[in-house]
Automatic annotation (TrEMBL):
Keywords: Repeat. This is Pentatricopeptide repeat-containing protein. It comes from the Eukaryota. PROSITE patterns: PPR. PPR repeats lie at residues 200-234, 235-269, 306-340, 406-440, 441-471, 476-510, 546-580, 581-615, 651-685.
Length: 733
């Protein structure tokens, strides 16, 4: 495909000999090569090539050769013609012919060959070769042939030309814009230094931007601090680059320092791109004072804000509930023929609704003759959240009459009614929705399912779930949770499990409370093993298992007489990072009692109390009875103090049990201490305990220090058995 150079591609400095018709045509030919860098187009036929050779033999002149080169489409033939002419006696290439062949090579991406031709042109000292090099550099830069431009630049410096700084700046700017490697930028900057040319602020801006792109922010800031040493003062572009890059890197405090520098030196950028870039940055950080100051500077510079700048400013004002000021800016936008977009109207509506100025929000939309549905939907939702349904109904009817409703508008109304158990009214809106040819989407189904679940109509909710599933639709997470909980309440556990398994295949995570209810329902129905198999599925979809879920499983196993399997579940619980709660401890303690593990049951009680958790009376009674029966009350010495002093959960029967057992085990002082506490509470000791009151003696007291028990036992030891059996996220029960 043939493309031609636009006038933007041609340098204003191209000499007169380029402006004649053949040279425009040859540039166009170079573009044809550019479109096919590999020069894969068919070569000129041999007969055509010979015809051109014969023509040149009779009329060989640089200008004639340039015309022939222009008419030759492929690069290989052009090179052959150029080299053939070079071998002819009394023929010398001109800067014109070199220009043509170098341009063709450059547009074809032949970087390595460019340097040789440039050096030959310089060596031949062709008239105007200096200007040709500069023009080639300009054209390559304008056409994003930057590697070729760098090659030409090296030739320019080798022949000690002294181009103006703008030539270098043009190449630097292109390198930075196209995110080329920093070494290329550094090469150009070094060439500037070698040429003895002083950089200006545009040069240094490109260098600073390149340093930031190379992730050398500190070096960029160092260049900024040394600007004055190079005889330069920062301009708006300097501040735009540095502030934007610092904010993007989270170095906001440093960005504010740079901004203060801008204010201090009274730099007032007079172009809109600066403000369009900087103001939204500080608006996003909610730096209202800074934004207002920048806005004032922009006004002083007589720069008209664009739509994005207005939008960011209005959003920031609304965040700070300065809605009146934001509305004034909207009026200013309209006056300046800058059309407010949906985001602007949304910001105003959000601000007014936050201030509970719902009527004013509606009036604003009417005054501005807003025809977009988005701000109306936002207002509709805010009115319903405020609980004023009649106002929302009137607004919806008005929207419907003006034909500015969409499926979201209908869903907002239906969802509110379903959430508030007004299913009949919701179905009326559903009927209107269908009559209006508005299709039901997943949000509609989700709202209706919630509505049915809140009324306990699980069958209808489940039917909608299957209907949507057949259409490959998905509910929202709240609706899945509501449906599963409703099914569990109706003891339709198999159906609830089916819903959970389906949502899990879509990697949808169920709320942990809802998952806990599902597990409880399964275990209570005797499906403990199936509940265990759901744990890896929950892990896969990101559902967090709550302690209640694990408690249900452990209670189910315990009820099935499989207390030894609790170790495995407990291990999984710890591996998943699920914290043990009071119920967990109680189940495990009762399991340890059933398995005859005295030390572990005593240790678990101590661990439980140390975490501020209390056993229920059933568990505590069973544990005390178990320890008393086995004459092992001494194993909970430290726990007894916490039970009677800190938590005060021991009743008179337990006091009697503990006192008698301690006496039997030979701990009279401890028994006396408990007796004193019992009497302070006004409780009467039992007959067997009464002997202490009449001064009965017991034989020499056994050592009252804490009994020696295996203090090295800890939760790790208890879990060892389970972890030994546990492998991965599955169970083998």
């Amino acid at each position: 495909m043939v493309t031609t150079f636009s006038t933007l591609v041609l340098s204003k400095k191209i000499p007169k000999w380029v402006w004649s018709k053949p040279y425009f045509s040859s540039i166009s030919g170079a573009c044809r090569i550019q479109n096919n860098p590999e020069s894969n187009q068919p070569s000129t036929s041999s007969s055509d090539f010979e015809t051109k050779i014969q023509f040149l033999k009779h009329k060989l002149h640089p200008e004639t050769l340039a015309g022939v080169l222009d008419s030759t489409a492929d690069l290989d033939s052009s090179l052959k013609l150029f080299k053939w002419a070079s071998l002819q006696k009394r023929f010398h290439h001109s800067a014109d012919t070199y220009f043509q062949i170098i341009l063709k090579l450059g547009m074809a991406g032949k970087v390595d060959e460019i340097e040789g031709f440039c050096n030959e042109m310089v060596k031949d000292k062709c008239p105007n070769f200096e200007q040709v090099l500069l023009d080639l550099l300009d054209i390559f830069v304008r056409n994003s042939r930057l590697s070729e431009a760098l090659c030409v630049l090296s030739c320019i410096n080798l022949c000690t030309l002294n181009p103006c700084i703008s030539v270098f700046n043009q190449l630097l700017g292109a390198l930075v814009m196209e995110k080329k490697e920093f070494k290329d930028v550094l090469f150009v900057y070094k060439e500037i230094v070698k040429a003895g040319i002083g950089p200006n602020i545009d040069t240094l801006n490109s260098l600073i931007e390149a340093l930031f792109s190379a992730d050398r922010a500190d070096a960029a800031l160092d260049q900024y601090k040394r600007l004055h040493k190079k005889g330069c003062s920062p301009n708006g572009r300097t501040f735009q680059i540095i502030i934007g890059e610092l904010v993007a890197r989270g170095r906001v405090d440093e960005a504010l320092v740079i901004l203060d520098d801008m204010f201090r030196i009274r730099c007032e950028p007079d172009y809109s791109s600066f403000y369009a870039h900087i103001i939204p940055l500080f608006c996003d950080m909610n730096k209202l004072d800074i934004v207002r100051r920048l806005f004032s500077v922009m006004r002083a510079s007589k720069v008209l804000p664009d739509s994005s700048t207005y939008g960011a400013m209005i959003k920031c004002l609304c965040w700070n509930l300065l809605v009146d000021d934001a509305v004034k800016l909207v009026d200013e936008m309209v006056y300046n023929d800058v059309r407010p977009d949906d985001d602007v109207f949304m910001s105003i509506i959000d601000g007014l609704c936050e201030l509970n100025m719902l009527s004013e929000a509606k009036e604003f939309l009417n005054d501005k003759e807003v025809a977009s549905v988005l701000p109306y939907n936002a207002l509709l939702e805010a009115i319903l959240n405020d609980g004023t349904f009649n106002m929302a109904r009137d607004l919806f009817d008005e929207m419907f009459e003006r034909n500015i409703t969409d499926h979201c508008s209908w869903n907002i109304m239906i969802q509110y009614l379903c959430d508030n158990k007004r299913l009949k009214d919701a179905l009326k809106y559903l009927a209107r929705m269908i009559v209006s040819s508005v299709s039901l989407d997943s949000s509609t189904y989700s709202a209706l399912i919630v509505g049915y679940c809140k009324l306990g109509e699980c069958e209808n909710a489940l039917a909608l779930f299957h209907q949507l599933r057949s259409k490959s639709g998905l509910l929202d997470l709240v609706s899945y949770a509501q449906l599963i909980e409703c099914l569990c309440q109706k003891e339709e556990i198999q159906e609830a499990t089916e819903v959970f398994c389906f949502m899990s295949t879509k990697r949808y995570a169920l709320q942990s409370t809802s998952f806990g209810k599902l597990m409880d329902g399964l275990c209570a129905s005797g499906y403990t093993v199936r509940a265990i198999k759901l744990l890896p599925i929950a892990y896969y979809c990101g559902t967090l298992s709550s302690p209640s879920a694990y408690n249900s499983i452990m209670q189910g196993l315990f009820s099935l007489g499989r207390a030894s399997d609790l170790f495995m579940v407990l291990s999984r619980m710890v591996v998943d990072g699920c914290k043990l709660d009071g119920e967990t401890y109680c189940i495990i303690i009762q399991s340890m009692i059933s398995l005859g593990h005295i030390e572990k049951s005593a240790l678990l009680l101590d661990m439980m109390l140390s975490q501020g958790l209390l056993p229920n009376l059933e568990t505590l009674s069973k544990l005390l009875e178990y320890l008393v029966d086995n004459t092992q009350v001494r194993m909970i010495f430290s726990s007894i103090d916490k039970l009677v002093s800190e938590f005060k959960v021991v009743d008179s029967a337990m006091y009697n049990m503990l006192i008698n057992s301690l006496l039997k085990e030979g701990y009279k002082d401890k028994a006396s201490f408990l007796l004193d506490l019992m009497l302070e509470k006004g409780w009467v000791p039992g007959a067997s305990t009464h002997v202490l009151l009449v001064g009965s003696r017991v034989e020499d007291e056994t050592d009252t220090q804490n009994p020696s028990c295996d203090t090295q036992d800890n939760v790790g030891n208890i879990l060892a058995e389970g972890l030994g059996k546990y492998d991965g996220h599955d169970y083998r029960l």
